[in-house]
Amino acid sequence: MFQAPAKQTATDTISTLCGRLASATLLEDRRAAILGLRSFAKEYPASVASGSLRELIAALNRDAEDVDTIKVVLETLLMLFNPNEQSPEASEEIALWLADEFTQRQDNITILLGLIETDDFYSRLYSLQLVRAISDARPERTQECILTGVGKVVATLDDHRDAVRTEGLVLLNDLSRTSEELQKLIVFENAFDKIFNLIQADGSLTQGTIVVQDCLSLLANLVRFNTSNQTAFREMGHVARLAALLPGAKKLKKARSSMEEDDDWVSPQANKNLWGLLAILRMFLVRGSISTLPNQNAFVKHGILQQVVNMAFGPASVIPIKIESLNVCADMIRANARLQEGFAQLQVRPVVEPVTNGATSPREPTTVYIIDALLDLALTPASNDMFDVRFAACECIKAYIFNHLQIKTHFLRRAIGGHLDGTDETANALTTLLSGSQGSQVIDPYRTWFAAVLVFHLIYDDREAKNELMQVVEGDAESGEEVVTCIQTLTGNLIASLQLGEDERIPIAYLMLLAGWLFEDATAVNDFLGEASSLQSLIQTMQKPGQDLIVIRGLCASLLGIIYEFSTKDSPVPRRDLQSLLTSKLGREKYLNAIAELRHHPDVRDFEVIPQASGGALPNVFFDETFVDFLKDNFSRLSRAIDRDPVKEILQPHDGIDRDLVDSLRGEIDEKQHAIEQLQAEKLTLEQKVNQEHAERRKIEDNAQQQVHNIKRINEELHRNHENDTKKAEREHRQASLELENKYSLQIVALNNKVQHATKETQVAVVNAKREYEDKLRQESRARGEVEQRLGASERSLQEAGRAHQEAMDANNALEKRYREEISSLEQKHRDEVGAVTLEKGTLETQIQESEAQIKKLKSEKDALQRTIDKSSSSSKDLQSTVDKLKSEMQELKTKVQDQTWKVKDAEEKMRKAEAAAKEKDEKLKKADAAAKKKEEARAAAQTELDDLFVVLGDLEEKRARDKKRLKELGEEVSEAEDEDEDEDGEEEDEDEE
């Protein structure tokens, strides 16, 4: 019976196909194997990848000319990246492993980039998809590998086939999201032009599809936080093309359809596209960026500001577009004085809440100035759905007054004037705050909140604005009405909102404004303390329990801390009484706890204003960004305020300060600052000099160390060279010995060969002779005698050969013995030479040391002799100057001269010995010879001086003798003692002469 063949498993089949792919030489065989692997790639990705991945990658390069094979290979690789989720081998690690295999070698990515350049549709499309899959798995490595080929990817944006173009666009989005270097390279490949061409070809913003969104995403990636690309965008003239995309620009003729209804059609993606473009505009206007100012000017120059304003107030614009348009307006004019001044001249139609189904009012509204329209938008009660629009309008007004003192002053004065006159037709922030709680505020607490934020920004950190607003009062004193200041009115409204339990956003708004106003303003604090009952109300509010009052308690504590910090002893409530009130009725611990709870509250600690979803509830917006920064900067100061001694006040500048005095003081400060800078510069110069000197000293020390190191290195090299020479000599000796042994061994072998050859020849001859003898013995019995004679001759020749062999062996032994004796003598000679060299080296070192010691000794003796000669010179001068003590000093001088004479003789003897020793040494002792010559000259000079002294003494003796003789002739007596002394002196002189 025949047995059925064993059923082959998928793993075995995959293994077989992998083997065929690796070993096949024909293109058709490889293609068939790849087709088989493709059928298994979805279900068995791990098995296919582990057995054939490298062969598949190699096929991309080997079979690049065959588009059918390349298509199958790319499809197989894509299936490996995206296997069936139900497959037992499906895993995210497979994609990582595949991406690693591609990115670990630049050649693999280069192969894919080469396929992207081809004209074949599937090769180009699948290569882009494969690179995208690799980028998704290993984005950083892919970005590094694709740097040199990014131009090939950008070129796909010009492909006329939508699939290829879209895939290239998506890949560029992925690659440019995080790599700034790739962003620059993409822009260098003229990507901006290609992006705008794609947007225009797809129907621009109003009729564009998802392709426009991808183009806007790529544009956002290229310009986000990239100042160089923003500069290139601006300088290449793309701002005008950006403006042409916005509504209100001149429409270009479209070639995609000739029917008018097609031109009026609006894509469902239109609002998303427009919102995306507005978001890109804001990326050019980042606060604090160096490119923001030129971007602002360029946008305004091309009319983008007017277009955005029209969108913000256009009746057809949806709320998200209005919000983003107002934010763009704020960013476009912030911190740009020229644009801020021109912004107020723009006129718009006021915004009204959208009517159901998008219908507009049939009545044509009149135009108003944009600031009035923004105020109306922010301060007019509206539904919660309009909060983000109102918040954006408030941000736009804040940008309008940002860091512009003249605009701030004008805005504040107009608000004050409109409030006092009561004729202001537009919404007035000051009137809204001072009017207190009304029905609209209760329904819409953000009306009060926006008004407080605007006034807060008008007076924040501006003393003149605070003083001007402080002049606003309620009531007429002449009519007998009570006069209430602006601060007291605001405080009253605050207390009323707290007592009535109104929405917490209203008291928070008043507390923000009062805290910013009273900070560092003692006059405003005194105004507040004019109504002392307000303190009691604030303290009572802080004593209320409840988690929902944490923010209110914290802000009340902050306001009380500011009041105490900047109060004085002359305040309506003296500073000492104020501290007693806070510590007794409130308590230090409760005050600090309220500050700490506010500091750690999420609305303060994690402050962020995010767009609010429309759901009918009030948005979770409680604070202004500037006020939160103000709180965070002063939390520590407010915590320490309650512990400050009431005697110590925070000094504040008084009104009416002399500006000339201030200017002169500032000038003195500038001069002193300049002097300080000069001194610091001098100090820096001195420090540099000191550092330079330290560096030079370190350099000298390093040089000295280097010299010591060089000396040590030279010494080591000498020892090493000596050892090398010794080893070299030993090697040469061993080599010579080996050569001799080899030579003699070869000779011995040759002699042995000769002996063996002779022996063999003899043996052969003997065998031949015996064979001949036996043959002749059988054949010629009669010739026996002759054969015997020949046999005897053969035996003799054999004996002679044996003797020759013995003689050769004896000669060989003698020769070997003689060679061994020569080798041993050579080794002994080498050892003797090494010992002699070592001994000679030690002897030379000993002689050098003895010579150096002798030189040092000779120098010391020279110094002693010099000192002795100096003493002799001084003694000679004393002899010349004193005649009365001549005899005693003469005796001492003779003794010293005698000693010096012997010392000079000894020195001369030592010098002769030293000179004899120095001549035997090297030229380094020449300096010692020169010193010896100098000593000889000094000795000769001393001897000359002594001879001159002896001459002087002889003259004195002769003069004395003549004086005695003259005295004797005159009859004077001369004592014999003197004569004896003279005789003794004469004898001593004679001895000295001998």
From TrEMBL:
Protein name: Intracellular protein transport protein USO1
All residue ranges annotated as the Uso1/p115-like vesicle tethering protein C-terminal domain in the record: 876-992
Residues forming coiled coils: none
GO CC terms in record: endoplasmic reticulum; ER to Golgi transport vesicle membrane; Golgi membrane; Golgi stack
Residues covered by region (Disordered): 715-735, 866-945, 962-994
Species this protein is from: Paraphaeosphaeria minitans
Chief location category: Golgi
Protein origin, superkingdom: Eukaryota
Compositional bias annotation for Acidic residues: 972-994
Entry's transmembrane regions: none
InterPro entries xref list: ARM-like, ARM-type_fold, Uso1_p115_C, Vesicle_P115, Vesicle_Uso1_P115_head
